[in-house]
Amino acid sequence: MDVITYPLDQEHLHLFNQFDRKFSVSSKVALDMSNGKLTWAVTPVERYEKEIPIDEVDPADFVNSEDKVVFLAEADGNLAGQVKLISWWNGYAYIDDLIVNPQFRGHGVGKALMEAAIQWSREKRFPGIMLETQDDNVAACKLYEACGFILGGFDRYTLKNFKPDETALFWYLLF
Fold it and tell me: What pLDDT, in 10s, does the model give residues 75-134?
């Protein structure tokens, strides 16, 4: 599958957030802290469906910006995914959103978007990239680890008010 990525521009604003955000959950991340090192393994759970909500933002704010960007991905000429990055309060680039349409998951689209995000972050001279995902998004965790990210922390209470059974996981790629 031929995957290309490109930054969001005026011509492609209508493509922003045009993605299916649903996925099936059949496993979760199980955390362990031993000898000061946070590790994780995958544990099966009863299957359920989940949908990641869309943040309402103006996509035009990301066009030609110095401190934030959206990259779109096309696979074989079809819209396949997007990644949204912003400059975070702690000086890191922050992946605020990564989404791949279901028919393109597992075909390198997420990896291509992560590579675009990493390249942009290096060019902007960020010291690294961070992001947050949930313990029930195992496919995302595997992608981040495959791209060189390390699991740096977790918070069992960040999502408690909305999703009481989910734990926030914080991933980092340091340059």
Answer: 999 999 999 999 999 999 999 999 999 999 999 999 999 999 999 999 999 999 999 999
Q: DSSP letter for 61, please.
A: G
Q: How far apart are CA 60 and CA 30, in angstroms?
A: 39
Please give the span between the terminal C-alpha atoms of the chain, in angstroms, as a whole number: 29
CATH number of 3-174: 3.40.630.30
Contacts of residue 87, defined as CB under 8 A and 6 or more positions apart, other chains included, come to: 67, 68, 93, 94, 126
Q: In this structure, are residues 109 and 117 in contact, taking their beta carbons and an 8 Å threshold?
A: no
Parse the chain into domains and list their residue ranges.
Answer: 3-174
Q: Which residues pair with 131 in a beta bridge?
A: 95, 171
Instruction: Output the pTM of the full model.
Output: 0.95
